[in-house]
């Protein structure tokens, strides 16, 4: 548990708080009774990407860049989003952030790049400290066997 707290300290308060916008979109859609499929396919991802562009100008952070990469993947293609995440991870700013590796794993999985997906899920699982996140990641890994 203490290791997870140490890893979270690598992110500034501002970076952690920038996670909120995408989560708010997700929870708002869930509160409206929309399914995950409706959320993924019925959301204006281009608009969300543009909003993240604006947020990057106002409050730049690697976590905002990660959220933008997910939005780009949803509106422009998984390869484009994956390239952005790979760039972020190469800069090592989010190398200790399990959600960066989890997002990468999901994109690789959806692209059929199973060995890469498995490696990224394993990295995310090693970094995750919250039990719900760990269960989700372990389940994804099991699905890839």
Summarize the structure in words.
The chain is mainly alpha-helical and about 140 residues long. The protein has helices at about 1-10, 15, 20-30, 35-40, 45-60, 60-75, 80-90, 100-110, 115-125, 130-145. The chain has a single domain (about 1-145), classed as Tetratricopeptide repeat domain (Serine Threonine Protein Phosphatase 5, Tetratricopeptide repeat). The longest helix is centred in the middle third of the chain and has 15 residues, at about 60-75.
Please sum up the structure shown.
The chain has one domain: Alpha Horseshoe (Serine Threonine Protein Phosphatase 5, Tetratricopeptide repeat), CATH 1.25.40.10. It is an all-alpha fold and 145 residues long.
**Inertia-based shape:** globular
Intertermini distance: 28 Å
Radius of gyration using CA atoms only: 15 Å
CATH superfamily: Tetratricopeptide repeat domain
Which second-level CATH architecture applies?
A: Alpha Horseshoe
Find the count of extended strands (DSSP E, 2+ residues): 0
Order of helices and strands: HHHHHHHHHH
Chain-wise SSE layout:
Blueprint: H1 2-8, H2 13-17, H3 20-31, H4 36-41, H5 45-58, H6 62-76, H7 78-90, H8 98-110, H9 114-127, H10 131-143
């Amino acid at each position: 548990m203490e290791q997870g707290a140490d890893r979270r300290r690598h992110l500034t308060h501002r970076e952690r708080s920038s996670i909120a916008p995408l989560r708010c979109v997700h929870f708002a859609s869930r509160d409206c009774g929309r399914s995950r499929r409706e959320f993924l396919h019925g959301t204006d991802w281009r608009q969300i990407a543009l909003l993240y562009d604006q947020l990057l100008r106002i409050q730049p952070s690697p976590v905002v860049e990660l959220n933008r990469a997910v939005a780009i993947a949803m509106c422009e293609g998984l390869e484009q989003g994956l390239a952005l995440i790979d760039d972020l991870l190469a800069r090592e700013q989010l190398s200790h952030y399990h959600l960066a590796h989890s997002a990468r794993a999901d994109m690789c999985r959806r692209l059929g790049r199973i060995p890469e997906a498995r490696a990224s899920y394993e990295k995310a699982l090693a970094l995750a400290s919250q039990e719900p996140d760990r269960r989700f990641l372990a389940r994804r890994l099991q699905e890839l066997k």
